[in-house]
Design brief:
mainly alpha; 2 strands; 20 helices; 2 domains
């Protein structure tokens, strides 16, 4: 009897821990997404809290409920009671990427918060469409594109946008950030247990938030503002108005396509890891669920795609079954409607969440190098470099924007450097994918495929699909651009392609 009671208690704590991990992962991503738009780009917070978050929550809610149903179906089919549902939530790399590379620049260019929101919805619509298509060809894409090309750009986002930028937030509130970092790294990196087996992530959030408000009300935080502590009812509203802004969003297709491909490939890998852990889900069911929930969210104001999370085996080890996804889906949905989710987003400080993102960034980096053949590791490193240019521009534009500087006020040398950074940054995900693939093929002595990659780069460069010469990253017809920089770079790629073709392929 005691053994049965102990087993039930263990299952309860396992389910509760899994729920907290999945719930806080989603809340944390929303906090950072909101912080990026509000504090980096001065975007109005009200639209984020009352429109974007409830709309995004629709995708999470539906997705987790479908994954719960798939787990119950598998449980009935196998007769096993230990079936663990696939975890689903907001895709962190693409959400941060959309904030920095799509919505932030769109708001700077238009200064229209509603149009920027609609551009975010349209980009998510394109991502969802791409994912539905790729769901049927995911295995083929995985075979054709080298792993270095697929995971390299994601590693760059993990290291720089999820690792370095949150580190700046942590240092802005060092006391809060270090306390949270110590607790979170202890739990997630070293797997040490807190006294009483308390969940370290929850303790970090509570302790860090408490210190933040103590320091803030004490006058020790220069950016501190007292929270409103109000919950506003925000029912997601179905709309197709954003479809009118798809032409203005086409320039972000270079971001939508790679993000859609990467999450589908991730979904395939996650389904395989679940199968190895004992839960054999149909890959197509998992992929189409994440694709359609991303698409559905865009019609309700959502701007962030859903994806199955890495770590199904970890949730299974916790003792989680289908309750944790059911609770996450329901609570994310209910909390977003009554305004509690937005209250969490406005209350929990960025410095508290920063260590979670640093950990996620490290995990993405580790996976990229681990899953890539060791001989291809230089290809992963090469594909990270365009993300560096994006990071530099993100930081630099904040300073030049505050100082009111324009490019024509810079010296000739700095203007050339700025143009190089701009071209390298624009379309950085697709650039990284092509560069990583090119070098992986070259390492394998497959010179024809390497030449094909550089020839594709040349064509895409001419139209601004990658390396756009425009500060906004927009696409164009080659002859409509006054500068000749895109012609020179396209020629450079073609010459590189010619060099590869001249090389003898080893048999």
């Amino acid at each position: 009897m005691n053994t049965e009671h102990g087993s039930q208690q263990q299952n309860f704590w396992g389910e509760a821990t899994a729920f907290l991990a999945l719930f806080l992962d989603n809340v944390g991503t929303l906090i950072f997404f909101s912080a990026i738009l509000v504090f980096t780009f001065n975007y109005p917070a009200d639209l984020i809290l009352t429109r974007m978050i409830p709309g995004t929550a629709v995708g999470i809610c539906i997705g987790d409920l479908v994954y719960t149903w798939l787990a119950l179906r598998l449980r009935k089919k196998t007769g096993r009671t230990d079936v663990t549902a696939m975890p689903l939530g907001i895709d962190t790399p693409s959400t941060i990427g959309i904030a920095y590379a799509v919505m932030g620049p769109a708001y700077i260019a238009t200064r229209d918060p509603h149009m920027t929101w609609h551009i975010g919805m349209a980009t998510l619509f394109m991502i969802g469409t791409v994912k539905i298509i790729i769901s049927f060809f995911g295995g083929w894409v995985q075979r054709v594109i080298p792993t270095a090309g697929l995971l390299g750009p994601l590693a760059g986002i993990g290291l720089l946008l999820l690792g370095f930028l949150p580190l700046l937030e942590l240092f802005s509130e060092a006391v809060v950030g270090m306390v949270a970092l110590g607790l979170i790294f202890t739990a997630l990196m070293s797997r040490l247990q807190l006294p009483g087996r308390l969940p370290a992530v929850l303790v970090a959030v509570i302790a860090g938030t408490g210190i933040h408000f103590a320091l803030g009300y004490g006058g020790y935080l220069p950016e501190f503002t007292a929270p409103a502590l109000e919950m506003r009812f925000a029912l997601p509203v179905f709309s197709i108005e954003f479809l009118k802004n798809i032409p203005a969003s086409i320039q972000y297709l270079t971001i939508a396509i790679p993000f859609g491909i990467l999450t589908i490939i991730g979904g395939i890998n996650n389904t395989e890891s679940a199968r190895l852990a004992g839960d054999d889900y149909r890959t197509r069911d998992i992929l189409l669920t994440e694709a359609f929930t991303s698409l559905i969210a865009s019609f309700f104001g959502g701007v962030a795609q859903t994806t199955p999370y890495i770590g199904h085996p970890a949730y299974k080890k916790m003792g989680a079954t289908w309750w944790y996804t059911l609770l996450t889906g329901i609570l994310i949905g209910v909390c977003s409607v009554i305004g509690l989710l937005s209250l969490f987003v406005s209350l929990i400080p960025r410095a508290v969440i920063a260590p979670i993102f640093i950990f996620i960034g490290f995990e993405i980096m580790r996976q990229a190098y681990k899953d890539t053949p060791s001989a291809h590791s230089p290809a992963v490193s090469l594909s990270i470099l365009p993300v560096v240019a994006s990071l530099v521009l993100i930081i630099m534009n904040q300073f030049t924007g505050e100082m009111g500087m324009t490019p024509d006020q810079l010296t000739t040398r700095l203007q050339i450097m700025l143009q190089s950074l701009t071209m390298l940054s624009n379309g950085f995900i697709l650039t990284g994918l092509l560069w990583g693939s090119m070098l992986a093929f070259l390492i394998d002595h497959n010179t024809r495929k390497a030449a094909l990659c550089t020839a594709v780069c040349a064509v895409l460069t001419l139209f601004g699909i990658i390396h756009s010469v425009m500060p906004t990253g927009e696409l164009y017809l080659p002859w409509h651009v006054t500068t000749g920089a895109h012609y020179m770079l396209a020629l450079a790629y073609l010459m590189l392609s010619g060099i590869f073709l001249l090389l003898k392929k080893e048999q």
